[in-house]
From TrEMBL:
Species of origin: Pseudoalteromonas carrageenovora IAM 12662
Keywords: Kinase, Membrane, Phosphoprotein, Transferase, Transmembrane, Transmembrane helix, Two-component regulatory system
Organism taxonomic ancestry: Bacteria, Pseudomonadati, Pseudomonadota, Gammaproteobacteria, Alteromonadales
Protein known as: histidine kinase
Catalysed reactions, semicolon-separated: ATP + protein L-histidine = ADP + protein N-phospho-L-histidine
Pfam families noted in UniProt: HATPase_c, HisKA
Length: 494
């Protein structure tokens, strides 16, 4: 049988409650009875002794048992709660106040009698009930002597059979039953109140368990799963746990979506790269086949042209493969940074010199501002050279003839420099600015000038700058140009 947490707690609470009630009731009744017997025995402790001293039949030690029985009967009529017995020194019952046939014992144990005589403070002490072989009662006792010779004991039972009968009749009274009924009702009400409180306290746990089951059934996706609302105003452990679980599941769901998106982008990248690799390979293969099959029929000029195109295709393949490996190493964290202090201006002019011939052929103006860039920086010189080269090459490809490209260096404070590479090219659409750093993404208005581009340059720039604790940003206006900027820590001169 599968029980919920509340049901298990409720059953356990009912069992424990009933057990405690029974234990408390039994203990209270026993304590009440013991206290009652203690008080009654102390109250009537000297009763037997006074009877011995005040009655000549007993005091003189010469006994007429018939007269003694009549005396006991008279005393019992005066005190119905008492039963009178005279026993000899061996515990044999010689006479008594009861009706014939009522007494079931012929002897009683004298040890309790002697104990009470010697130590009256030990009350309550229980002695044998002559009317019931399995029962004991509180009593009063006094020894009876004749010329200093022990003749026996006057044994008085306190609360005899008549007293018990009267007490049971009182206990059966309707008022007592009504009081007991009210007490029982109060206990039942207390139990119900405790169960309601228990339900109230365990309800958030049940809601949390249902939420976890929903999440599991939805394969840990919370997109279409409606979960309970755990208030941030409540600071109990269950609400804190519920909020933590929901935050954890939300984060897991986001990571799943990121992995799915990353896997989708990776597949798209592989598709694009396969296309990019296939195009120069097909061109290279076609020209080489022409050279191989018709080499003797081609003129020297045609052969040189075919070889030149084939070499260009080989160069594009090499660059594309290098970019693929570089991006893979970046994503896997396999590229290390070796920071050093160097002059930023010298590196910028080296990069400008590398592209000056290409820019001159296209009629572009390459400038550095300020012209004297004496700024010491702390970075990886090789990785920074790669970033600047990619950005300048990108600007040259997207700037039409007669345009200009400038590298600006700005000091923001004593610790930071900003490097900006701007052009007057075709620009980038505003809705494409956030996507241009994705691998293989190319703006819709990009100019490749007959060269096959993998679209990995900006993704590599972003990854390299991130390794150097820098971040690249872009601003662009369609038809007017684009500006890429990033920050570098400056070496403070002392």
């Amino acid at each position: 049988m599968n029980l919920s947490l509340y049901q298990k707690l409720a059953v356990s609470l009912v069992v424990i409650f009933c057990f405690i009630c029974a234990l408390v009731y039994s203990w209270s009744k026993q304590l009440e009875l013991t206290s009652k017997h203690h008080g009654e025995q102390n109250l009537h402790l000297a009763l037997a002794e006074h009877l011995v001293q005040d009655n000549p039949l007993i005091k003189e030690g010469v006994y007429d048992y018939a007269a003694l029985e009549n005396l006991f009967h008279t005393l019992m009529l005066l005190g119905p709660a008492f039963e009178f017995y005279f026993v000899d020194e061996n515990g044999k019952i010689l006479t008594y106040s009861a009706e014939p046939g009522k007494v079931k014992r012929t002897h009683i144990n004298l040890a309790p009698l002697k104990k009470l005589i010697n130590n009256p403070d030990a009350a309550p002490i229980y002695g044998d009930n002559p009317r019931n072989k399995a029962q004991q009662k509180i009593f009063s006792v006094a020894p009876v002597f004749n010329n200093d010779k022990l003749q026996g004991y006057l044994y008085v039972i306190i609360g005899g059979e008549a007293y018990d009968t009267s007490l049971n009749t009182i206990k059966n009274n309707d008022k007592l039953w009504l009081a007991a009924l009210w007490l029982g009702s109060a206990l039942v009400f207390l139990l119900i109140a405790m169960l309601i409180l228990l339900r109230f306290f365990t309800n958030p746990i049940q809601r949390l368990a249902r939420d976890v089951s929903k999440i599991e059934a939805a394969n840990y996706s919370i997109t279409d799963t409606k979960l309970s609302n755990y208030s941030t105003q409540k600071s109990n452990e269950v609400h804190s746990l519920g909020r933590s679980i929901q935050a954890m599941v939300t984060r897991i769901d986001e990571q799943f979506k990121e992995l799915e998106q990353s896997d989708k982008q990776r597949k798209e990248l592989l598709t694009h790269l396969s296309h990019d690799l296939r195009t120069p390979l097909a061109s290279l293969q076609g020209f080489l086949e022409v050279l191989n099959q018709s080499g003797a029929q081609l003129s020297a000029k045609e052969q040189r042209e075919y070889l030149h195109v084939s070499l260009n295709n080989c160069d594009q393949l090499k660059q594309l493969i290098e970019q693929i490996f570089e991006l893979a190493h970046l994503e896997n964290g396999e590229i290390s940074i070796h920071k050093e202090t160097f002059n930023l201006g010298e590196l910028i002019y080296d990069c400008i010199a590398k592209f000056s011939l290409t820019a001159e052929k296209k009629g572009l103006n390459l400038t550095v501002e300020p012209a004297i860039c004496d700024f010491p920086v702390v970075a990886d010189i090789a990785k920074l050279e790669r970033v600047l080269s990619n950005l300048i090459d990108n600007a040259i490809r997207h700037t039409p003839k007669g345009g200009s490209i400038a590298v600006h260096v700005k000091r923001i404070d004593q610790k930071q420099l900003f490097v900006q590479v701007s052009d007057t090219g075709v620009g980038i659409k505003h809705d494409e600015l956030n996507a241009i750093f994705n691998p293989h993404y190319q703006a819709s208005n990009s100019h490749n000038e007959g060269r096959q581009q993998g679209g990995l340059g900006l993704a590599i720039c972003k990854g390299l700058l991130k390794l150097m604790d820098s971040e690249i940003n872009v601003q662009s206006e369609l038809g007017k140009g684009t500006m890429f900027s990033f920050n570098l820590p400056q070496k403070i001169k002392v």
